[in-house]
Amino acid sequence: MKASDYIEESTRYLMGTYRRYPIVMRKGRGVKVWDTDNNEYLDFLGGIATNVLGHCHPKVVMAIQKQAQRLLHVSNFFHIGPQTELARILVENSFADKVFFCNTGTEAIEAAIKLARKWAIEKLGPHRYGIITAERSFHGRTLGSLAATGQAKLKKGFGPMPEGFKHVPFNDIEAIRSSISEDTCAVMLEPILGESGVVVPSPGYLKEVRALCDELGLLMILDEVQTGMGRTGTLFAYEHEGIEPDIMALAKGLGGGIPIGAVLAKDGVAGAFKPGDHGSTFGGNPIACSASIATLNTVMDSGILLDQCKRMGSYLLGKLEGLKLKHPDRIKDVRGMGLLVGMELAFECADIVKACMARGVLLNCTDMNVVRFMPPLTVEEKDIDEVVETLDHVLDQ
Question: What fold characterizes domain 59-302?
Answer without folding.
Answer: Aspartate Aminotransferase; domain 2 (3.40.640)
